[in-house]
Amino acid sequence: MSSSSISDSGFRSGIQPHDELKKILTVEQLPAMPQSALTVLQIDNDLAKVNINDLVRPIEADPGLVAQVLKFLNSSYFGFQSTISNVKQGIALVGIRVVKNFVLWKAVFSLIPKTKGAEFDVGGLWQDSLRRAMFARFLLTEFKRGDAEMAFAGALLQDMAIPMLLKLKPIEYGDLIARHRELEPSVRLSTLEDERFGWNHAQAGGILGRNWKLPHLLTLIIEEHTEIEELTQSFDSNSEEASVAISALLPSDSKDDWAEADLFVKYFKAMLPKKNGWIKNLFERVDREFDQYASIIQIGKPKKKLMDYIDKIDF
Known about the structure:
Hypothetical protein af1432; 2 domains; globular; 18 helices; mainly alpha
């Protein structure tokens, strides 16, 4: 979806946040987004339109953040032959969007509860989310559609509300997560949420995004990612949202099987007719680049690669 079409209306702009969600996810209940990250996120994405020092200044004002950004820029993922010694140099080399996405990730990661237990492992969520983010980015890059970096950010954060809901509504939401994992893994989590609560984690993600003052377009993409039926039918005009929506159907490393494989193929074919042979190419690229990127943002390796599931797909 183009920037103008999202900002003018939004795919689900007419849907109001559920009253219960608004009560659960009040600003008072949530940790505050770091000011340095807020300042960075508000800066224009076009390097030609901004003074690069406006981006450098809030990063360098936070010693912990500047150290993380420089470690990121000097990682093997980029493979620069000489050391990046300052943030300004790094932004000039990799672009504003890449640095902003990293700052966004570190900020949100610091705000999300670090739950790990029988009902949910937030480390597994970030593994799945990074893989989905890379898939969404590469899909748009390969087919030259939309804003690949916006899709990357949207896919990375699409499920960020789940651990927050577990913290704020532990018994009821914990029971639902357990039911999804053990009894109904083939049913989409959002379907179970809608049936039980009348709201889902995508809508909760939209509320989090607004409370944390995330970019408007990014918040909409997170909020709409479960609306795959409609989005994949209009890939050309909703490319960022559609790529994130279909990435949500990729296998989860916390499950032994890929219960949604048939749905993934169905919607990929609807989105890109006669292009389903590209699924293997995209899986191979994600697997090839995942480990390097994961080590940068301190995410563990999944037990299985995407290519381990390729036999589940009927081309």
